[in-house]
Design brief:
With 629 residues, the chain is mainly beta. It folds into 3 domains: 224 residues, Immunoglobulin-like; 173 residues, C8orf32 fold (Roll), CATH 3.10.620; 209 residues, Sandwich (Jelly Rolls). It is 14% helix and 40% strand. The chain contains 8 helices and 38 strands. The strands form 9 sheets. Strands 2, 3, 5, 6, 7, 10, 11, 13 and 14 form a 9-stranded mixed sheet that branches. It starts with a strand and ends with a strand.
């Protein structure tokens, strides 16, 4: 998908050779896509006028790069899109498709009427063969000068770059701030003139994805830009630091949205009248919002930066992250609980708002509640998430907290490895034919809470399929009973499952062999890598605790039992024990603490060996032999 937020056109002034056989071999190696060229030109005319031009050609080699096959242009009432041109070429460089502006469909950015002024021009190209090249250009004039496109010459793993050029012009009365990152290992040409700066990068080979590598953006070259004078949502602003920007944001984009009908104010006051605790009041309001509204997915910037009026959310009972966070804040204001609108980067990869660099950042909004014991953070878009439990989407990262006094950079909740737990308990009975009957309870919390959260609300048939996939290490599973509960009050997801399966124990002559660990088996060992280039990053650790009773078949006795095993190193702690409760009963215990951390690339073989040993012991087998009767 070619995401062209606030990008623009350059007229075609020359012929291009898109014959893929002419691409240097070093750029083809390991590449799913190759940026043949990218020319981005930003011209800030004034505080409230910016021209953005882009011309780009990208060759796509396979379906793994299919996200670059579409053309997407976001626009709103503050933008004017000039002529859009796009062409598709086959592997020999022959034109096979011409795309005009009229071929693009114009949709609401939210897919609903939530943002009628925020639109997207969209074209879906469906290839018949690979490789092919898509070449497009267009131009945008916008009054929104607060957000300046960053220079990101390499966009993903397995993408090569033949040439990328970026230039920025600006008037003398506007100060440009820039943050240049990860330039050291690249031959980047930087040209600085009066009121203009440009960058050029050429012939960069694709980087292959390595297991547990840090996020791509952490080591790829990039430049971010900011201005001291800007226009956002049609309003002029000026700021030189986060405090000034936050104050401007609050006064110009938020303050006018804190409206609620009196009947709603009275309703929430009645709901919270029996407690004086700010936290208890916040819990009641959070549950009220979860029960009342639904979430419409629209990122910050695409659906604008100003939230809907709180009264509109109250009336419509839906909104995006901005709207729902702002609505929750307004309800909390009504019952006397302090909270703050917070801009953040949401996603599984931990990405900070750059504390040292003022610019419009973030793609998501959550809510901050300061307390005497520290900050609480509310994800207002989820109807299932427990209070102040943000999980792996906004955890452990810097965010911009917007208060009436100004903006503040704060760090969101960090989950300890032991808080991200899954506890499995129960039993299974193995009969004389090798079949088992299992009765299992699972409790998950922290970032593991969300692993099965999607199970809530599924049909019986859907759950049957999901649990069979979850226990794919067991063949012929027949689910007999499922009971799940989202215990939001204590932040645990509870699952109880009963199932049976044939041939779990393999009978060979007088013996039966079966793996004692039935419910939590490690299968994914990191692949072997020669000459690893990236360090190892474990973003989130976890704690798994299993305690399962095993009842053996009455016609068999134990011949061989696995030894207890323990390993402890910088990556974690793993303990396995098998206790003989009686001649016919065993207790299997497994504890695995996996630690978060950043480790040098030289540790990779040791890291891989750690996982190999765990996988081996997770598959420990018991050998039974028939009794002499």
């Amino acid at each position: 998908m070619v995401a062209l937020l606030l990008y623009s056109t350059v007229a075609y002034t020359q012929d291009y050779n898109f014959d893929t056989s002419k691409i240097p071999e070093k750029l083809v190696k390991n590449a799913n896509s190759i940026i043949r060229f990218e020319n981005v030109a930003i011209d800030i005319k004034s505080q409230k006028e910016m021209i953005i031009k882009i011309e780009k050609a990208i060759t796509i080699y396979n379906k793994l790069a299919s996200n670059y096959e579409d053309i997407i242009i976001f626009h709103d009432k503050g933008t004017v899109i000039k002529s859009v041109k796009a062409y598709v070429y086959n592997s020999e460089g022959k034109e096979i498709k011409k795309i005009k502006k009229s071929d693009l469909n114009d949709y609401s950015a939210s897919g609903t009427n939530l943002y009628t002024d925020n639109r997207v021009l969209y074209y879906n190209y469906v290839p018949t063969t690979y490789p092919f090249t898509i070449h497009y250009s267009y131009e945008i004039k916008t009054s929104n000068t607060a957000f300046i496109n960053p220079w990101l010459p390499i966009e993903s793993y397995r993408q090569s770059v033949q040439k990328s050029v970026y230039s920025l012009k600006y008037p003398s009365n506007i100060n440009i701030r820039k943050s240049e990152r990860n330039f050291t290992n690249y031959n980047i040409e930087v040209a600085k003139e009066t009121n203009k700066i440009s960058y050029k990068l050429e012939n960069i080979a694709a980087v292959e994805l390595e297991p547990y590598a840090p996020p791509f953006k952490n080591f790829m070259p990039n430049v971010k830009f900011g201005v001291n004078k800007f226009n956002l949502e049609g309003i002029n602003g000026e700021a030189n630091n986060w405090e000034e920007f936050g104050k401007w944001y609050y006064e110009n984009l938020l303050q006018s949205t804190f409206d609620l009908p009196e009947v709603t104010k009275q309703e929430v006051k009645n709901l919270t009248e029996n407690t004086n605790s700010p936290i208890e009041k916040a819990k009641i309001i959070y549950n009220y919002v979860q029960d009342k509204v639904r979430y419409i997915s629209v990122q910050v910037g695409i659906g604008g930066f100003k939230p809907m009026l709180a009264s509109e959310v109250d009336d419509l009972s839906y909104g995006d992250c901005k709207a729902l966070s702002n609505y929750t804040k307004t309800l909390l204001d009504a019952v006397g609980v302090e909270s703050n609108y917070t801009v953040i980067y949401g996603g599984p990869e931990k990405r900070n708002i750059d504390n040292e660099f003022l610019s419009v950042q973030g793609n998501h909004v959550i809510l901050n509640i300061p307390t005497k014991k520290g900050d609480l953070w509310l994800e207002c878009t989820s109807q299932k998430t427990p209070f102040a439990d943000i999980g792996g989407f906004t955890d452990d990262r810097d965010a911009l907290v917007i208060t009436p006094e100004g903006g503040k950079i704060k760090h969101t909740r960090i989950y300890k490895d032991s808080e991200n737990y899954k506890k499995i308990s129960g039993k299974y009975v193995l009969n004389n034919e090798g079949s088992i009957k299992a009765d299992i309870n699972m409790i998950s919390s922290g970032t593991q809470f969300v692993n099965h959260l999607s199970y809530e609300g599924k049909t019986e048939k859907e759950l049957d399929k999901l649990y069979k996939e979850f226990w794919s290490n067991i063949n012929n599973v027949t689910i007999e009973n499922i009971a799940i509960r989202n215990n939001k009050k204590i932040g645990e997801f509870e699952e109880s499952v009963k199932f049976g399966a044939e041939n779990y124990g393999v009978i060979t002559g007088e013996r039966m062999i079966f793996p004692i660990n039935a419910f939590n088996v490690t299968n994914n060992i990191p692949k072997r890598i020669n000459n690893r280039k990236m360090p190892i990053e474990v973003a989130r650790g976890f704690l798994n605790i299993d305690e399962v009773e095993v009842e053996l078949p009455i016609n068999y006795e134990i011949e061989t039992i696995s030894n207890d095993y323990e390993i402890e190193c910088e990556f974690g702690i793993y303990k396995l024990s098998i206790e003989k409760l009686s001649e016919s009963k065993l207790k299997y215990k497994r504890e695995f603490l996996f630690k978060n951390g950043l480790y040098p690339k030289e540790y990779y073989d040791e890291y891989r060996e750690f996982w190999r040993k765990i996988a081996k012991n997770d598959k420990s087998k018991i050998v039974l032999i028939k009794k002499n009767i």
